[in-house]
Amino acid sequence: MAIGCGTRTNLREKFKVIISFGFFQFFFALTGGLAGNYIDTNFFTISNYFSGAVIFLLGIFLIREGYKNGEECIYRQLSFWTVVVLGVSVSIDALGAGFSLLFEFDYSLIFQDALIIGLLASIVTGAAFKIVNYIKHIALVEKYADYVGGIILLLIGINTFLA
Questions:
Q1: Which of 27, 98, 119, 125 would bridge with 33, disulfide CB 3.0–4.6 Å?
Q2: What is Dmax (Cα atoms) for the chain?
Q3: What is the pLDDT of residues 90-132, one digit of tens each?
């Protein structure tokens, strides 16, 4: 939403961002799930405590990013490398989520769930480009989005830790 708010984007640029965000969400969730599965199978059992703590830390990280990045809109030239870096930076938390949530599944389920994560990320990114036209003047939404996401991750982490 911050890209759509701050940068005048054409359809081609929006499509590149949607594909980048979806691909990297998929890739990092898959990589994290496979790494977690490998560690759980070959080294030590990953407990709910460990996976809950990872998600909780991701929530803290997201809240910290929201505090650090106080700007409301992002103004960028959307070159190829900018789109790749943005895709990686918004998706790196999927590595931890895949590691802590998908590790218990077999390879086909890890792939399937990572694919669903990537597809949903693409759909939500596309929807965000549409929605931002209506809410970009509401600074409150932009300013606190990272905080809301961080709080949700904190709650999921606590729930996983206690399960």
A1: 98
A2: 51
A3: 787 788 778 877 877 889 999 999 999 999 999 998 998 888 7
